[in-house]
Amino acid sequence: MVSSASVPPALTRKWKSHDPGHQRTSSPSPPQAAKPNAACDSCGTARIKCKDRLTCERCQKLRVPCRYSLPRRRGRKKRPQNVSKYPQPRQRSALSSLSATETENSRNPREADSPVEIE
């Protein structure tokens, strides 16, 4: 067994969570409120930060209403529950039946389709 004196402190682990006398010192973090947008809608479109919360300087100069919309959801959109995960097999379409007819004709050429000699 390796003594703790020969192992650098950075490589040693302390398993305090398994120690029955150990109590958690950090309290759980308080729930955070929704982060407001950094810019109003007008400044956000122009990719400029706002300096004021109620009406920013840019909106005052342009004389447009300074609005803050709700942030858009990120990530995948939820799939409607009535849509099946596996699509139903399609019925044979007119194009697929036409291609089947052409395949049969290429296997059994008609006399009219045979090469004609030109004199």
Automatic annotation (TrEMBL):
<feature type="compositionally biased region" description="Basic residues">
    <location>
        <begin position="70"/>
        <end position="80"/>
    </location>
</feature>
<protein>
    <recommendedName>
        <fullName>Zn(2)-C6 fungal-type domain-containing protein</fullName>
    </recommendedName>
</protein>
<feature type="region of interest" description="Disordered">
    <location>
        <begin position="1"/>
        <end position="39"/>
    </location>
</feature>
<dbReference type="InterPro" id="IPR001138">
    <property type="entry name" value="Zn2Cys6_DnaBD"/>
</dbReference>
<feature type="region of interest" description="Disordered">
    <location>
        <begin position="69"/>
        <end position="119"/>
    </location>
</feature>
<feature type="domain" description="Zn(2)-C6 fungal-type">
    <location>
        <begin position="39"/>
        <end position="68"/>
    </location>
</feature>
<dbReference type="Pfam" id="PF00172">
    <property type="entry name" value="Zn_clus"/>
</dbReference>
<feature type="compositionally biased region" description="Polar residues">
    <location>
        <begin position="81"/>
        <end position="103"/>
    </location>
</feature>
<dbReference type="GO" id="GO:0008270">
    <property type="term" value="F:zinc ion binding"/>
</dbReference>
<dbReference type="GO" id="GO:0000981">
    <property type="term" value="F:DNA-binding transcription factor activity, RNA polymerase II-specific"/>
</dbReference>
<feature type="compositionally biased region" description="Basic and acidic residues">
    <location>
        <begin position="104"/>
        <end position="113"/>
    </location>
</feature>
<keyword id="KW-0539">Nucleus</keyword>
<dbReference type="InterPro" id="IPR036864">
    <property type="entry name" value="Zn2-C6_fun-type_DNA-bd_sf"/>
</dbReference>
